[in-house]
Amino acid sequence: MRKIKKGDDVVILSGKDKGKRGTVVKIINNTYAQVQGINTQKKHQKPNPSNGTAGGIVAVDMPIHLSNVAVYNFSLKKHDRVGFLVDSDNNKIRIFKSNAEKI
To answer: If I label 42, which of 64, 69, 85, 97 is the partner at 20 to 30 A Cα–Cα?
Structure first.
C-alpha cells in the first residue's frame, strides 16, 4: 500500500513550489507524483486539426518526486507523515502519525 495516493491533498516540501498545496492527479512508477498546479512548465505544442487542438505555448504540470511531497492534515492545518494500522478485519489502513486519525 502506498503512503500517497491519487486524490490526496499534499504540501510541497522543497523546490520552487515549496509550501504550496495541491491534489495528486496521478502516481508514476511509485516514485513520482503529478500534482495539480504544481511544477508547471511551458511546452510548445503543435496544432493538431484532427483532434481539434490549437497550437501555441501550453502550461503542463510535470511530475515531482514523492520525497518532496507530504500529505496535508486538515485537522492540524499542516503537513503530516503517514503510517499504517491493521484493523480488526485485517485491513491495512493509512493514518496520520501525529494524531492517529484515518486519512
So the answer is: 69
For the entire predicted model, the pTM comes to: 0.86
The domain spans of the chain are: 9-47+56-96
Q: What is the pLDDT of residues 10-23, one digit of tens each?
A: 999 999 999 999 99
Q: Which long-range contacts (CB under 8 A, 24 or more apart) does 28-31 make?
A: 28/63, 30/2, 30/66, 31/65, 31/66
Q: What are phi and psi of 14, to 5 degrees?
A: -150, 160
Residue type, 98: S
Number of residues assigned to the chain:
103
Q: Enter the DSSP assignment of 53.
A: B
Please tell me the distance from the alpha carbon of residue 15 to that of residue 3, in angstroms, as a whole number: 21
Rounded to a whole number of angstroms, the distance between the first and last alpha carbons of the chain is: 13
Residue 79 grid coordinates: 503537513
Three-state DSSP class for residue 68:
helix
